[in-house]
Amino acid sequence: MALTLKLNGATHTVDAEPGTPLLWVIRDELKLTGTKFGCGVASCGACTVHLNGEPVRSCQTYIEDVEDAEITTIEAVGDDKIGAAVQQAWVELDVVQCGYCQSGQVMSAVGLLSENAKPSVEEIDTYMAGNACRCATYQRIRAGIQRASDILEA
């Protein structure tokens, strides 16, 4: 079935069967591979994208449910002030180790800072709890979010 998606500010027509996860359309049809497959059951956060500005797990978001939505992937998250601040903080603090989970971590961090510009350590940990990091860089991720908050405050 042909669907029209608004992804990263551009309109795309894709052909996908109902029930196809958004993740596979993004990666296989549109060739944007920054969004990662992690678990397939929305438990790890590697596939996080923004749907109308809210972080969602694209592995469990079906293509027929997003036709009229604004979708943002890691490839375009730096186009706004919050995304740019998170990316800057990640680079400054060398947050990434292996990097596999980091697109999902960044997307969730942007979601957090969009809701709460100055989160406490506890608020960061609670919000980010659904994002798994195989390398256990949680302290660096937390520091990156705090640094991005400071950048935004300046």
From TrEMBL:
Listed PANTHER family: BLR6218 PROTEIN, OXIDOREDUCTASE WITH IRON-SULFUR SUBUNIT
Name recorded for this polypeptide: Isoquinoline 1-oxidoreductase subunit alpha
Molecular functions per Gene Ontology: 2 iron, 2 sulfur cluster binding; isoquinoline 1-oxidoreductase activity; metal ion binding
CDD domains given in the database record: fer2
Ribonucleoprotein as UniProt keyword: no
Species, as recorded: Ruegeria meonggei
Domain 2Fe-2S ferredoxin-type: 1-77
The keyword Iron-sulfur is annotated on this UniProt entry: yes
InterPro entries linked: 2Fe-2S-bd (IPR002888), 2Fe-2S-bd_dom_sf (IPR036884), 2Fe-2S_ferredoxin-like_sf (IPR036010), 2Fe-2S_ferredoxin-type (IPR001041), 2Fe2S_fd_BS (IPR006058), Beta-grasp_dom_sf (IPR012675), Diverse_Oxidoreductases (IPR051452)
EC number, UniProt record: 1.3.99.16
Keywords: 2Fe-2S, Iron, Iron-sulfur, Metal-binding, Oxidoreductase
PROSITE patterns given in the database record: 2FE2S_FER_1 (PS00197), 2FE2S_FER_2 (PS51085)
UniProt xrefs under Gene3D superfamilies: 3.10.20.30, [2Fe-2S]-binding domain
SUPFAM superfamilies per the UniProt record, alphabetical: 2Fe-2S ferredoxin-like, CO dehydrogenase ISP C-domain like
